[in-house]
Design brief:
Layout: E1 9-12, H1 24-27, H2 32-42, E2 53-55, H3 57-63, E3 67-72, H4 87-103, H5 110-114, H6 119-122, E4 126-131, H7 134-146, E5 149-154, H8 160-167, E6 172-175, H9 180-194, E7 197-198, H10 210-229, E8 238-242, H11 247-260, E9 266-272, H12 277-284, H13 311-317, E10 320-324, H14 326-338, H15 354-364, H16 366-372, E11 379-384, H17 391-398, H18 402-407
Parallel strand pairs: 3-11, 4-5, 4-7, 5-6, 8-9, 8-11, 9-10
Antiparallel strand pairs: 1-10, 2-3
Helix pairs in contact: 2-10, 4-7, 4-10, 7-8, 10-11, 11-13, 14-15, 15-16
């Protein structure tokens, strides 16, 4: 299989300093103590296990780097996305807080809710969020699992396949006109008017910071998983992470900075060229919106605004941002599905292939390769944020279903 050299735009974050201590400002948003709470709760859920960290020596050889590991979030619970760690965790904490504040019940564990204890006290609680697909699926799944009501707002570009995957968890679907950012604002306004609990993964549309913090804190579980899965004697040099509103990048960057300090790997965020809000913000040194349409093949990264809550961490803790054309993600999906040499086959969706596409683009461009610091000794993790969460799109791009690819492993 040949690899196309897609052109990437690059900006280095001049505000990042690998020697800078992860400070009090950042710790007010994400910290190791809150990670420990999230890890304890999430690891108690049915069917929890760390998702695979897949070594791809064939791809590493093609790119001239030391090794490539792909964190396969397509194996995350039944949701096929890292988002399962965030939205559902926030729903859990909201319900625990409701029982404490409204009914004076403390010490309620996840298992208490999972077994139906206190269901009569939470069945009329409503959670709500706007989504490109995967975050809403997590919130709907969490509401269904723990026993409350759920409203999910979908903008006009979200596919029917993604809508159906959310609706099967019993969520009420609300379709809105416009793009993702418009749906975020509409959901926030309706939640405030109806006394629903907003489970947003961004603060761009309004609302408080409690739920977005919880969502991002859930994501840090993934970061610790891959640290624990890596070969013990080999320190990481790079982590490539998909963009979106910045929640996943902030969560991973925060956890690595606080956990590893000066040994933190270089953190590279990858975005679609049509939805490059992190790129624009890093370039400008302040939050900067994407004007106009943000529709992109990398559907779950179609964000025009960085989450203000994630920004203080992104501004100080990520090193580089790359933007790519949509075709780069399509090709990366195929590369992961069919592999090089004896590489394991990996099912990655449109957004789940973005980080790998960014690595490929950087490694094949001599100037960018040098700028980002890639070489024969580089030890890299790419975050495969989703599997085939839109089965129709996956079949159209890869030519096989996810099940057929997995059967060839």
């Amino acid at each position: 299989m040949d690899i196309t050299q897609f052109a990437a735009r690059h900006v280095h974050n001049s505000g990042a300093d690998s020697n800078r201590v992860y400070g009090d400002t950042e710790k007010q948003i994400l910290n190791l103590a809150a990670f420990a709470d999230a890890a304890a709760d999430i690891s108690s859920w049915p069917d929890y296990c760390p998702t695979p960290l897949v070594r791809l020596p064939g791809l590493a050889g093609k790119l001239g780097v030391g090794y490539v590991h792909h964190k396969d979030e397509g194996k995350r619970f039944q949701l096929k996305s890292f988002k399962a760690l965030g939205g559902a965790y926030a729903v859990l904490k909201i319900l625990q807080r409701h029982l404490r504040d409204r009914h004076d019940l403390t010490g309620i564990s996840p298992s208490d809710l999972l077994t139906g204890d206190h269901r009569d006290l939470i069945r009329d609680v409503t959670v709500a969020t706007a989504t490109d697909g995967n975050h809403g699926r997590s919130v709907a799944w969490g509401a269904n699992m723990f026993g409350c009501k759920c409203n999910i707002y979908l903008h006009s570009h979200v596919s029917d396949v993604r809508e159906n995957e959310i609706a099967r968890f019993g969520a009420r679907i609300v379709r809105t006109n416009g793009n993702y950012d418009t749906s975020v604002r509409q959901c926030a306004a309706d939640a405030a008017a109806n006394n629903w609990h907003l489970v947003a993964d961004t603060t761009a549309g309004g609302g408080d910071t409690k739920s977005p913090k919880l969502v991002m804190q859930g994501y840090t579980v993934m970061a610790q998983e891959f640290l624990d899965q890596l070969p013990r004697r080999e320190a990481l040099s790079h982590v490539f992470i998909p963009g979106g509103v910045g929640g996943i990048a902030a969560a991973i960057a925060a956890h690595l900075r606080e956990r590893l300090g000066g040994q933190c790997p270089r953190i590279v965020v990858v975005e679609p060229g049509k939805a490059d809000c992190i790129y624009r913000s890093i370039e400008a040194g302040e939050l900067t919106k994407v004007p106009g349409d943000t529709e992109t093949f990398m559907a779950c990264l179609a964000a025009g605004e960085v989450s203000p809550l994630a920004w203080p961490i992104l501004h100080t803790c990520i090193d580089d941002v790359l933007t790519l054309p949509d075709d780069a993600a399509r090709e990366a999906m195929q590369i992961l599905a069919f592999g090089f040499a004896d590489d394991p086959r990996v099912v990655a969706g449109e957004s789940g292939a973005a980080a790998t596409a960014g690595l490929i683009a950087a490694a094949l461009d001599p100037a960018l390769r040098k700028t980002v610091g890639l070489n024969q000794g580089s030890r890299i993790v790419t975050i495969g944020s989703e599997g085939a969460t839109d089965a129709d799109t996956y079949l159209r791009v890869v030519g096989k279903t996810a099940e057929q690819v997995e059967a060839s492993m």
